Structures are given as C-alpha cells and as structure tokens.
User: Fold these one by one.
Assistant:
Number 1:
Amino acid sequence: MAYIGAQPKLGNFQACDAITTSATATFNLLVGGVAIFPQTAQHCLVSLNGVLQAPISSYTISGSTIVFASALTSADSIDFITILGDTLDLGVPSDGAVGNTQLADAVKVGKQTIWIPAQAMTPTASNGCSTLQTVETTSGRPDMNVLDFDKDSDEHAQFSVAFPKAWNAGTVTFQFFWSGIAATTGVSMGLQGVAFADNDSIDTVYGTAVVVDDDAQGAVEELLVSAESGTVTIAGSPGDDELCYFRIFRDVSDSNDDMAGDCRLHGVKLFFTVDAANDA
C-alpha cells in the first residue's frame, strides 16, 4: 500500500483481539495476545453496539488499555477496535543541514535545454547564410522564419549564450530544426563554440565542429528535427559569467549532404548540464 508521508511504524491497520465486555470502563488491548500501545485515541477506530465512537469524548487510551467514558455492561458489544499505525516523527532539520546536495531531488539539476530560434541568429560577415527569411505557408497559418543555407558552399550563422552559473561548464550537444526544399535527401549541419571571460579577446578561434546529419521526408513545408549530436567541446575553457559564441553551418562537403536546395533553419536546441540548485 502506498502512503502520503512517512509509512506507519506499526504497519497497516491492526485488529485487536475480541473483548468480552463486563461491568467496567477499562479493557486491555491485545493483538495476538500481545499488548499493543496505540499512539493516541485518534489512532483507534472503535465500534460499540454497532456505532462508531468518537475519540476523547467516548473513550481515551492509557498505555495498552482503552477507557470508555462510561462503564459498560455484559450486554454491550465491542464490535471491533482497529489500531492505526503510528507515524514516524522526522523532526525539523537543523539550520545548514540542507544544502545543494540534499536539494538535488527537489530542483532541476542535470540535463537541461535552451531553444535558440533563427530570429536570434545572424549570418556571419564572411561566408554567411541568408538574412532572416519569412516564408508564408497559408494566410492565417504560421509563417516560417528561417535562415537559408546554400547547397553549393558552407554557409554560416552565429549566436551567443550566457549560460547560468549552475551550468557545469562542460560539453554541450544540439539538435537542429529545419525544412527542406528537395524531399528525401540529406543535410549535414555543424556546430562549434568558444567562450570568453571578462577582458578576453573575442578574436579567438572556435572549438572543433561537430556535425549531425538528417534527411528530408516529404513536403517542402514539413518540419524536420535532427537527432541529438555528439558532444561539442567549447574552446576557451568556459566558466561562470562568460559569454559563449556558437557558429552553426551547413557542411556541404559531408557525403550525407546531398539535398539539391537550401536548408531552411528554424533554430537549434542546445543541451547542457547543470550541477547546482541555483545561480548563487
């Protein structure tokens, strides 16, 4: 049986042994011939002569005995006394006893994602892709806001991310979301990154690119989502309070890139890992 909160120390419900009534108000509580000690009167369900009794006003508990408010007679019948399990008192944690490690199950630590839409990217000054294009599907339906990457040469766009301090400053992975012009053929997209701290020169080489392949499946206006990439190592030894630049590009020299038309990039989903509860 599932429980909300701590599981009762005495397990589930326990039925007391049958009690033969007599001209007294006090009776021993036994389970299997062994005395049982309910935590309080509220931990007992008591039925007398077919009527459930109210704790405290109708009966109280003293150790392993039940004491009725009025003496019974031999004509009375105690239908049942059921003992509810005692709960475990966990107490109150001391100050400073709960930190990031203890909060790990209650907060989002681990793998996280961030969405970078095409609207947040810009073509690079050299060998850049198209500027942001708005492609109408049908009037009144979603327009596609995309960057077009040519089929004949590698074209690039860039974006930047200031990750939270909770980021572990490790590798990232990515997926690209796109639409194709020619169906059932492939596109290869690569990503590389570099990080800059305060006073670093931005005139620095990107890290090694990681490429992901994906295939178009049908209509020109169909949304396509690549598999998650391998790990992308960001150059520049990233850390807290740094700005990471990323360059996304179409790798037309890849043997799997054989689509005879532009790759329309909708955006990129970045995966990264956090190892702290907050940005303190």
Number 2:
Amino acid sequence: MAVVNVNRKVTDQFYRYKMPKLIAKVEGKGNGIKTVVVNMVEVAKALNRPPLYPTKYFGCELGANTQFDKKNDRYIVNGSHDPDKLQEILDNFIEKFVLCPECENPETTLSVKVKSEKISQHCIACGYTGLLDTKHRLAQFILKNPPSSELDTVTPQKGKREKGKGRKEQKTNGEPISPPAEEPESVDRNLFGESGMLPPSEGSSGNLGEWSEDVTEEAVKKRMEDLSGGVKGLVMNDDLDKSAEERINMFFQFVKSKTANGLEGQEKDIIAEAERLDVKDKAALVLAEIFFTENMVQEIKKYRKLFLRLLHDNQKAQKYLLGAFEILVGKSYPDQLMSKVPHILKSLYDNDLVEEEVFLQWGPKVSKRYVSKEVSASIHKKAEAFITWLREAEEEESEDDEEENKNDGVQFSHTKNQVVVKEEEVAKDDGSDIDIDDI
C-alpha cells in the first residue's frame, strides 16, 4: 500500500510521520451513487483520530451526506468523488484538526468539554495546549461524538454486539440504515488477506496443502523487528509477580543505567519500562529523585518532555510528582528550595506538568505521607500565595465564560497565557491582588 507524509507540505522522504494514501471506490448508479473510502480506518489510525471525523469532514466540505458503518469498516460519502480531490480535502482536515499549530507535529490529542462546548488540542511533542475553532461544522459533530466514545471504532471487534444495542447500528447522518450481511464469526480476514488464503512460503510448489507462514530465519527476524515497543511490552514476564517496592527499585536502576551518558533518545525506553513494570503512576517519584536537584526550577523545563510523556492526562501520576516535590523541598534541599516553593509550583503549572485541578486538591491538604506534618505544613504555607492566585484566576475565568456566553462572544480556554492576561488586567484594576511573578 502506498504511503504519503501526514503533512504533505513536508517533502522529505525520511519524514517519520506516514499514513496510507487514500483509496476511494465509486459504487452504484444514478441517485444511489456513492464513494466508499476503502482504507479510512487505516488512515484514521495513522492520524490518531476516529474514522468518523475525516469522513464527516468530507461531507461538510463537499456538501454531501455521509454514512458510517462502523461494524464493517465502511465509511461512505454520497456522490461520485475523485480520490485526489478527497486527498486534498484530507490535507485540510489534517491542518485544522491534527497538526500542532506550534510545531506542526501530528502527535496531538483532542479533549472535549461538552458542557462548555470547548475542544482543546494537546501536543505531546512540544506541550502546546490550545482551543480548536468551533465554528466549523465538524467541530459541532465532534462535540456530539467526543474521541473518548469514538476511538474504539479504529479497531472494532467483529462478532460481538454491545449490550443494549439492537441490530440497526449503522448510521446515515444519525439515521439507521439496513445492516449488510455478516460474515461468519470464525472468519478473520485480517489473517488471510484479500485472497482469503495464506501466501506460499519460499521454496513451496504452490500447492494449497503446502501454503503456510514463512518461518525462515530471515522472515522471523524481520517480523520481530517490526514489533512495536508496545507489543513487546505485552510479553509475559516474572517481574510483575514481584512486590511494588521491588519493581520501583528495578525501575530506578534501569533509569540510572539508561541515563548514565545522558537522557537524549532514552525517553521512550524509560516510559516503556515503567509500563512494563506497571509503575507508571509512581514513576514520577523515581524520575524526580534522579533528575531534580536544588536547581529544580530550571530543571523542570529541561526535562519537561520526559515528564509530559508520563504525566499528560494522568492526575494520579501528577499527585505523586507533588509528593516528590515535598520530599525534595522538605528533606533533600530544604535550605535551597523552601523559599522557592511558589516559583517551583508556578513552573510545574506553566510547563503543563500538573493540572490546575490537582493543585487545588493538593493545596489545603497537609499530609505526613512524604515528610513530617510540620514540614508539610510549612511547604503548604509557602504555597498559599500560588494556590490563592490559581483559585482567583479560576473564578475570573468562570465569570468571563458566563459573560461570553451571554454576549455570544469568543470563548477562551484556561491556559497559562489566558491567566497571564487576566492577571495583568487585575493588576491594572486593583494593585492589592497577588502577582505570582512577584512572589
């Protein structure tokens, strides 16, 4: 299957982000003519988006109805459409709903807040977080069909029906259509290819009875190389039978040995090992101990990408990071870091390592879990100014959102840039309010 660059403006043949070239087939005649996007599931998987989204985008741009047959992987645009034209429209979809506006990297995820009607985009590569334009018709479709409920359509399981669902599961713009005939459950065409039979191995005469999987040494080696790190991590190992403390110590030794000559290029292996040992949440404690010193404020930015891979959308891991922060401030470097508590917390917030909600939960809770209760109380007292600033910024955003909804104005997300703007506005109105940068 031919592949193309995800961002086709990039002409480098060694560009790492590839996707299958769109394959479209026209079916039917007259008023019943339609275009089936044959490999929509594979394309959508390469873009990390549900296949419904680009299909619906085609319909929006072409003014055509679309049909989604999730169970049988059929994604249809009514009418006859040229594949090259669809590929150009897909490029526009990628630019609007996939590529990061900062680094133009496609390693992005979507997060939908249905109540506030906001769609935020987060880039795992550079850490950018911002809002998508909700004026496009597809944005309204995404709000009604958020990724969390649609991503499972990328690899559907055939032969099983979800509880409570009837026979009419396919949709045409929200309306059910008649389901096509089902294949027997015992048949898995992914194993056989389009011909329905295994290809002959090298040296076979071509007789049906001799057709089997190629088990030559070269073929086995090639298949092992093709295995992704994630699949390799699924191999059963005895390490999971060990206690949590033993696995944490194993992870500590692994990271120390991996980064003996520097961290560059080791991030993915470190996260993969944390997942293999099932210590991804507590791994923040280990990484903080290894990489953070009395220069923690500067080091947060230096090691941001590694910690983002661990902490993004993982509030439990973020809470462990705050535990590590208390250890560093209260035990490891109290003389150097205690006075810098607000600056450290602000740096964790600005670099998207800890979410606002986690900070607000942590703020009022003095605990002796990581340090003594007296030391924890001192740390939390130093953090009061930052927590107060964060809470007031949240209240201002809530008030502004209500006002914007009344005026049908532009909506903004609670990003660090917005908070800075609001902070400046507050400073102009009332000099008595807290300025986090002066703490």
Number 3:
Amino acid sequence: MSIQFKENWQETRERFSAWWANESSGRPPIYVTARREKPLINPYPPEPYSDVADRYLNTDKIIANQFEHLCNQELIAEAFPFMTLDLGAGSLALYTGSEPSFNADTLWFLPVMKGLPPDGKIPFDVKNEWYVRHLEMFKAAKEATKDTDIMLCVPDLVEHLDILSSLIGATELFEEFFENPDLVKAACSSLNEHFKTAFDAFNEYCIDKDTGWNAFTAFYICGPGRTAKIQCDLAAMISPKQFREFALEPLREQCQWLDTSLFHLDGPECICHIPALMEINELNAIQWTTGHGNPPSGEEVWYDLYKQVKDAGKSLWIALADYSPDIAIQKADELVRKFGAKGFYFLMPDMTRKEADALILKADREWKC
C-alpha cells in the first residue's frame, strides 16, 4: 500500500529552491504542522524504548514511533515527511574511533586520542563497527518507507574542528592550535574527506532518485543535490583570527562540495565570525540559535545579525517555535516588514489547522517576495 503524507511537493520544492538561491518565491517557506483529529493511517503502534541507548539503536522502534508521529500530523505549507536515525550530533566521531556515551537527553562522544597523529591524518575504516551498524539502520529504514513519500535524512555527521574536539578533547585541541597548527589543518582536511565518504554512503539511502533531492536531519531542510547543515560550535571559544586560520577554509571546501548548505550559528559568542562566513560565496544560508537564556530569535536585539546576513545576500532560517502561534506570526510579520520577505524560512510552533490556514493566508497576501 502506497502512503502519501504530503500533497504539495512540487510547490514545496520550488519554494525551497528559491530560498536556497535567495530568490523570490511568492512568499517565504514556512514549516508548520497541525495535529490530525484522526490519524492518516496507523499500522504501527508506538513502542516505548527500554533505555536511552534503545532510543538511538533500536531501528524497528525508531521507525514505528516516527511513522506513528507522521500519521498524526498534518504537514502544511513547506512541512514535509521525514525520518531521522541519528546517532547523536557528530556521528563522524564514532566512525573515526570514538565510543558513545548514552545519556537521557543526548549522546556524547568519548575522546580516544592523545594528541593528533604525526601526519595529522585521522583514520577512518569503512568496516568500523558503528559506521557499518549505522548504514544497516538506514538500509532497514529505506525498506520500511519504500512505499511512502517519507524522506530519510542524512545523519548529523558534523565536521572538522568539532569532530577533532570530540576525538582528542577541546583543551588538547587548543594546545594543538599553538603547538602543531599544520597538523590541525591536515586533520581537518582528512575529516572533510571522511565527511564526503560518509555523506555519499548515507545519501544512497536518502536521495530521492526521481528528483535528485535529499533531506538533512537537522533544521527541517531539503534541497536539490547534496544538502546539509554544517557547523563549528567550537567557534564560540576561539577568536576571529583562529576561526579564519583553522575553520574558514574547511568550511569553504565543504560548501563547494555540497550543492546547498546551511551554517548552524550557535549562540552570541559566534556572531563575531559572521564577516568571515559571509566570505564563503557557496554558503547559502545561516541558521541562528540564540543560546540558552538569551532572547528568542524574533526579538529586535538580533536584528543587526540579520542585517549582516541579508546584506551579504544569504538566506536566513529563523525558529519562532518557542512562541505561541499568535506571537510567532506577529514576530514573523515584524521581520518581513523590517527586512522584506525574500530569504526568510520560518519554523513555526504547532498550530491548529484553523490557525495554520490563517497564517498561510496572511503570508500569501502580505509576505510577498
């Protein structure tokens, strides 16, 4: 039995394509869902996980629970059906030697190296236990979703400096900055190659063969060709000079290899790196995370950041999901009136179908781009 969760795929792809290119698309892309009064179809009952590791490793339960969730959601505007099988944010660390530490709300990667290898090259064995196991999970999910329009998401591999920090520890990495900068750069280069290898391997299960589109597990994004979120959370602890020396070129290389890319900017400490990031011509968009305890992303305090990104011709991913539906719509409206609608992608809170319909009607009428 074929199951279709979404009706307006063509329109959604057109809006995403325009957003990635920072072009007009009628109105900004909007990700919004509403809970169904009656499930679309529910062949799988939800299954409780036995422990925290089970949440990440029990493929059958992960598939059943995400399928059940999709069956109870109406996907409105640019919301699309996806399934994610992450082994934490940064699973590239597992494939290159780290071991996982499963916790109640996250997965940590345990350092395994005492400093960097003499040549700076980080080993990656395609027979690595975690890599093979993760690919097997995707193979099973591909089979389970083959008669649906669900997109499997490329996992959150993460890259270069953040992976090095996982493998040797942040303090040790900072020491390497000063003692062995060339080794750090060589390690980042080798991790970029491993990122490409892993990305393409997972993308074999994730890419839509008919359209050439793939989805990425973080931030509700999909796009033509290789699409991914990239990051450097370590940037919060390094200077703009160090960011330019160690992070900028590996990020540029990634963006040149990817077809569409979104940089995850994590917290106010990272804002100082915006000028450098804006120099990456191939980078399409910025996703802004305000950080714990800071005002949410719809507040005026962040307008200067948005102006920097807009002035550079990049698109913006803005989460308004922490607001109530009416305030989220108000904040989006304020942003559109201040900066224009082109280039925004809004993540909205869950709404009733009536609230979501009113939002889209307003967007179609007043947020034209």
Number 4:
Amino acid sequence: MRIGTIVSFGVVILTSAARLGWAQQEQWLQYTVANEAWQILGDMGAASPQISPQKPQGIELPQFKCDEPLFARWNTPMVEAGGLWIAMDRTKKDGRYDSVYVDSDADNSLADESACQMYRQEQRETYFGPIKVVFQSEDGPIAYHLNIQLYDYQGSRYLYIRPAGWYEGAVTVAGQQKHCVLIDQNVNGTFNDKSLNASSADRIRIGKKDSRDTRFVGSYIEVDGVLYTTEIARDGAYIKLAEAENVTFGTVRLPDVVTDFAAGGENGLFVVKPKDGVARLPVGRYRIDYWRIDRKDDKGGNWALLGRYFSGDPDLSGFTVAETSEVELSVGEPIISTLGATQRESEYVFAQALQGRLGERIELTREGSQPQPPKLQIKSKDGTYDRTFSFEYG
C-alpha cells in the first residue's frame, strides 16, 4: 500500500506555566497530510455526495476528455457558497474515470483547475489525492486536503470523500506531556464540530502517541480521571484546555451487570465503569455509544457481550441527564437471537443475528475471539429430512 505523507511544521511558542498558566495557552498542533490517511489513524468518517451527469449551473468547466463527465458537490461551511464542485473525467474513451477536478479556490470555476490523476486503481475503486483546497479566513488562507474514492462497478457509482489531513502534536495537561490528535470526522473542513449525532461530531485523542482512545469533540474531555473544558480552533490549528469547574452532574441507572458504558453528545464522549449500576455524567442530552457485560463461565473462561451500532429510531438510544432526577436505561440482557430465511429459486439462505433490547447490534466473544458459530437443525414434519448445518461468520 503506497502512503505518501506531507508534514508542515509551525512555530510553537512555549510560555512559562508559572507566568501564564498552561490551561490558558493555545497549544499549537502540526498539520499532517497523507493519501489513505485512514490507514494511519484508523476510523475516519466519509462524505458521500450524490453523483450526477448533470452539469452544474453557473460553474465554468474545463475541456473534458470524455463526453460524459460526472459531477458532485462537497459541502463545507468554510466557503461562502457552502460547498465546492467536483468533476470526474476519463482520459480514455472506453476507460474508467481516472482524473478529478476540484474547485480548490472556491471561485465557482473548474476551468482554472488542474486535473488530479488517480494514484491507485482496483477492480471497482479508483483513488485520488491528497487534493489541496484553500479556504480564506480573517487570519489568512487555510490549507485543507481531500482524499477521493470512486466506486464504479456494473452501473453502480458511489463517491467517498475523506479528510487527507489531520492535526496532531504534543500538548501539556496538568504538567504532563500528552499526544493530541484532531480528526475532521464529519468531513466538512472544520475540526471543532459538536453534535448529539456521533457521525456529525469531530474526534479528539489525548494520551499516548499510539493510542486509539478516540473521543467526540465536545464541551469536555476526561484525561487521567480529570475533567477538562476544551476550546478547539475551527481549522484545528490549536487546542486550549482548562480544568472544568462548577460542573453539574446527574445520575444514570444501569443494570448491575453492565461493566462498561459509553454515551456521547455535545458534552463529548464519556466512557465510564458504573458502580452498583450507577454512572454520573454532566447534565445534558446524550445517545448511548455502547455498553458491555463481562462474565466468566464455570471453567474460568472470559465472555463479553458488547452492544453498539444502534439502528432504527435514534431516540431509542437517546436520553437526558438532569440534576434533579435519575434516568434509567434498559440496556443489557436479555439478548434476542433472530433467524432470517430467504428463498432464492430452489435454495434457502439462513442468517442468524444477535440483537439488543434497543435494536443495537450484539457482539459475543470468548477470550477476545468469536466463539464457534451456532448450528441450525432442519427437520421435516414426518422426520424423513433431518440435517444440521453450521453457520459461518462473514
């Protein structure tokens, strides 16, 4: 896998903590760029704008090499128009789309842009990037980079836009040096988005350099058991931390067997270990991110139930923490095992799944690995057909 990396270094001014107090400083981060950045950072969001052969109105276009260019619009609040146009071209008449134009200076023109050629192509996907765009701000131009992936197979086309750049660097927290990473998870060009919806909130990491402990960008973040307020630059260039004061908490009641619980919202993502079924969170609106139950069998084996990826009505996983009342959440056991059957001509396809009480997906593991999949016995009423089949993961 070819991964190219560009690092731009800024000047970091270190000020005496005794003079200014570290909590009040802007702690500057470094901007790093890579194609396929998700290979380096792990989980990163993706925007998937609609693709259309319809030429956009009011946009100057380049001289395309093919007769059927494709167009899409990437939404970002960093430009006055609210988004940038993207066009896809192909250099060979019967070939695949292998070049991309992006309105990198937000002037409503693709005619003044150079085509970005693909750097990797597979059977169904073509990859482009990093593609630089420049946002104008009161403090001057701001560079941002995109990675673009086009899925094109048997008439189905999907466009995936991911951030190619992120901010990271050393920050001081309570006198100790930590590593901070900022990720534009919702892929809109900014790094300080808070939201009740997990997919709309950006991401932050503070800890060891190789840590994947990722939290939602929010009003707070917990580091080493201490709660801090956060201020993050819109463009991600710096972060300010201050120990939180006068925070009002409320009580969340969970089943006693729940060993780990996480919930997120505009306050951030909180990962807690309930004590006697009780968790404490700052007052506000949240949605359950996941819950976990750990248990040992009679042979000492470690089993775990993990519930996450809530589907259906998002309000089922939502709750409000108030100072004056306790909120009780119906998570954990019992777990529902479902069996689905689909007929395909003369064949039947069966699928088994585990589902939680709120529609969440359930993962069952033993010693950190999936146990043997269950079996399915099919027997006719008169007993002439009696066979047992094993399910397969994946």
